[in-house]
Amino acid sequence: MKTLVTGATGFVGVAVARALTAAGTDVRVLVRRDSDLRNLVGLKMEQVHGDLRDQNSLRHALTGCTQLYHVAAHYALWSENPAIFYDVNVTGTRLLLETAREFGTERIVYTSTIGAIGLPAGGGPGTEETPVSLAQMAGDYKRSKYLAEQEVLRLARAGLPVVIVNPTAPVGERDIKPTPTGQMIVDFMKGRMWAYIDTGMNLVDVDDVAAGHLLAMERGRVGERYILGNRNLSLREIFAILSGLTGVKAPRLKLPWQAVLPLAHVNRWIADYVTHRPPRIPLEGVRMAKYRMHYDCSKALRELGLPQTPVETALAKAVRWFRDHGYA
């Protein structure tokens, strides 16, 4: 039985690929010709070249595969060309899953995002059933992933055997890009965090997220969504844990998100028109800080048996990996 994994060069994707190979699965990975392959060094798996926007390459990649983990996405809080979010995340997902249906792929796990899950208007943790709309999506990444998830749900209703997982904020090893959460850890380690916003997020070990993917393939109900997360924390609590792990002092100055918003707009303008590089203060990240991104993960615990590695352990692995690889 051969299994195709997209996005295996990335943070979550390589964790999924490694978990599969450790379980003895015959893995094939779809990679672009210009992909950064550092995360795949030393892994015994077949590599095929292709692109989510090239259906012929998707047909080649899916040939002989009975299972598919679609983890790939354009994940960023800023891009010079916002259209890429929709080309890769929406159109690419639809093309891949339609091709999988054409090939009769037996089982599919699609990696969505916690950003596509709603938050209750009155506060409290969001669940897979919390109502949400496109209008509530902040930024092109979240909008594109919301639209992609709607495509996946449509195909599931039409009979495609696909299960959706929504990871929260994974942390751990091999975050080579790094992700926005990983960059926050790196910035903290470098002493760049002079203040904090009164917000929060749900953290989870990236290896638990990978395990959740395999469990969703085995036990998940078709057409259902599963939040893959662990512990709800305030940003202040996260920085306190990081301070204990690194010896770097946690910031004491608390700022309302509205106070940081003008700086984020200036950073966005500089990125768009001057540096053409990601802004130091991402506008979409500040807009998301308006909400405490806290979620109820009990469905995945109950139906999938999602493991729950302590968040302190996951953050320690991230700190050690970033330090060992010269990020901080």
Q: How does this structure look, described?
A:
This protein has 328 residues and is α/β, with parallel strands linked by helices. It has a domain of 199 residues: Rossmann fold (3-Layer(aba) Sandwich), CATH 3.40.50. 43% of the residues lie in helices and 16% in strands. The protein has 11 helices and 12 strands. The strands form 3 sheets. It has a 7-stranded parallel sheet, sandwiched between helices. Strand 1, helix 1 and strand 2 form a beta-alpha-beta unit. The longest helix has 21 residues. The model has no long low-confidence stretch (mean pLDDT 91).
CATH architecture descriptor name of one domain? 3-Layer(aba) Sandwich
Helix share bin: 40-55%
- The SSE string, one letter per element, is EHEEHEHEHEEHEEHEEHEHHHH
Mean model confidence by pLDDT: 91
Reported for the largest beta sheet, the result is: 7 strands, parallel
Helix segment count? 11
Strand order of the largest sheet: 3-2-1-4-5-6-10
Using the alpha-carbon principal axes, give the shape: globular
Radius of gyration: 19 Å
CATH fold field value of one domain? Rossmann fold
What is the CATH homology-level superfamily of one domain?
Answer: NAD(P)-binding Rossmann-like Domain
According to DSSP, the number of beta strands is 12
Cα end-to-end separation: 41 Å
Low-pLDDT ranges: none
Q: Please state roughly what percent of the residues sit in beta strands, choosing from under 5%, 5-15%, 15-25%, 25-35%, 35-45% or over 45%.
A: 15-25%
Alpha-beta content class? alpha/beta
User: What is the CATH C-level name of one domain?
Assistant: Alpha Beta
